[in-house]
Each structure stands twice: as C-alpha cells, then as structure tokens.
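User: Sequence for Sulfotransferase below. Tokens please.
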Amino acid sequence: LRGADEKTPEKYAHIISTLPKKKGWANDQYRYQGFWYSGFLLNAVMSVQDNFKARPSDVLITSSPKSGTTWLKALVFALLNRNLDDPTSNHLMLTSNPHEYIPFLEIQLYAKKQIPNLDVMPSPRLLATHIPYSSLPESARDSGCRIVYISRDIKDVFVSLWHFVNKVRHDMKEEISLEKAFESYCDGVSIYGPIWDHQLEYLKASVVRPQCVMFLRYEEMMEDPLSEVRRLAQFLGRPFSEEEEKGGVVEEIVKVCSFESLKDLQVNKVGELQLEMMKMKNQLFFRRGVVGDSKRWLTPEMIGRLDGLTESMMDTFGSPT
Ligand code: A3P
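Assistant: Structure tokens for Sulfotransferase:
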C-alpha cells in the first residue's frame, strides 16, 4: 500500500498539469526536468523515480530511443549468461525478443497500474531505461550499479525514430511528415528529447564515474564489434578468459547478437511485445541496422542543420556523438 505522502497518480496528474506543454510529433509533450515526455510516459517516469531502488549489483542499460538499445540488451544478456561449454546456448536468447529478457523500467515495468515488486528478482538484475541521467532515481546514480549507455549519430537516430513512430501508428489516418518531425526534433521536442542533452549527460557521467558508467557509440560497435564487446565484458566484471578467447567465444557472441541473427529469429519475425497500452511487433525493432542511413532521407540542408546543432552543443567534453 502507498504511504500517505507518497506520490500517487493524482499527484502526478497535478504535477503534469503545471508543466510546460507543446505539441509533439503526434500528441502533447510535457517538459519535465529539462526533457520532453507524453503524459502517459511521464506518469511511469515519476513512478520509477519514486519507487525504483537500485542495487549495487544491478546493470542498467540506458539510451535515447533508436540508438541500438535492442542490440546492447542482447549483448549484455549474452555476456552475463555465458558459460564455456556453450557460450550462447541460453534458450531465452533464441526464443525471446531482447525487450522481454531485459525490460524497460518506465515503458514496461512501471507503466502498469500496480507498482512492480522488483525485490524478488535475483541479482544481478538486468534492467533498461531511456530516462536521462539527471532524472534517474538517486539510487541508480549513487548505489554504484553499472550503467551502460549507447549513443548514436543524431541524424540516424532521428530517421530511425521517424520510421518507427510511423510504423507503430500505422493504423492512424495520416503519416507524420518528415519535415514536421524534423522541426520538433531540432527544437528538442521529441520523446526524451533534447537528444543532445541526453547524450551529453551520460557522456559526462562516464568521464566523472568511469567505473560505474560506460558510454558506447553505435558506430564504433559496428566498426569493431570484437573490441567493443571485449571492453563491455571487462566493464561488466566478466572479462574473457584466455580459454574463451581461444575458443572463439567473443566472435560467437558478436554473431548471435548481430542485426542479421536477431532479425532472423522466428520470435522477431512474427512475435509481438505486450506493452501496457498496445502490442508492438518485434520486427519493428529491426529495420536496416546500418551507419549513415539518414543520408538517404535527409536533404543536405537538414543534415547541415542537425550537424550544426550537434557542434554548437559541444562543450569541454567534446562532441557527444
Ligand atoms: P535503424 O532504424 O536505423 O535500422 P533501438 O534498439 O534503440 O530501438 O534502436 C533501433 C535501431 O537499432 C534500428 O536502427 C535497428 O535496425 C537497429 N538495430 C537493431 N538490432 C541491431 C543489431 N543487432 N545491430 C545493429 N543495429 C541494430
């Protein structure tokens, strides 16, 4: 039962009613602690902030949507569940979508009316969130739990997100136009936007607290997955042994988690993810999986504008992407 002074959906509704509001791509978005959310999502974010207590042994996968979260989930799960005899045999990986075995705190667990009891989950708990670093529950920043962030070229994220949102809303009357979506995106008014602040916050945290926060880049993982997966394994406290290296375990994990392998799994071809508000086809999480796809969709002006914004957001830490 909730205590008398705990935040309740009514209190959340009151807070939301006081927030700055703008029309987003499809519905109203509210600015909360510097970032934009739909009302439904924001309720869940506030519930995570009030109720989620991180354990030092937790592993939190974090990202801005469409940055490669699904891929990172598969990799982290494979790395932490491997055994020498058969490093990628875990049947869950072959029969489930990564969002089933590593759920999002706010989109899946705390989006339900009932507050979930995550105390019953055995350690290490593998969880995910798109919540910005500064809005994470205090325990997630202070407990010493491991946080892995994946960032991606902002232009590719935009194009991936635009495709994804239109496919999710396929039964709606009209498609969201690229131009309209682009304008709001540049203004930062998109889900968990502005993405520049999102990436920079995690980048800074990874510099200040490198033992707890790891900042990965999609493009670097695509270019040299073996090295990046080795670094990730090290960060997670499960470096590859000599025996594993010799046995080709790193290569095997990279292969099982590759775009082609995941996309081809039966569960990702025909399965669906049950969310609180809707069912989502697993295949929507696997579109093209390439670097630089935005060039096919954006005009040179659009590319120049996004790159200009990214440059102007640079600070002493350098470019976030
Ligand atoms: P595209 O739309 O550019 O193809 P998220 O997982 O954060 O929702 O991000 C989805 C993006 O990651 C999509 O990008 C998707 O195709 C790509 N993706 C999914 N699985 C991948 C994998 N195993 N390797 C590389 N990219 C992957």
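The longest strand covers residues 146-151.
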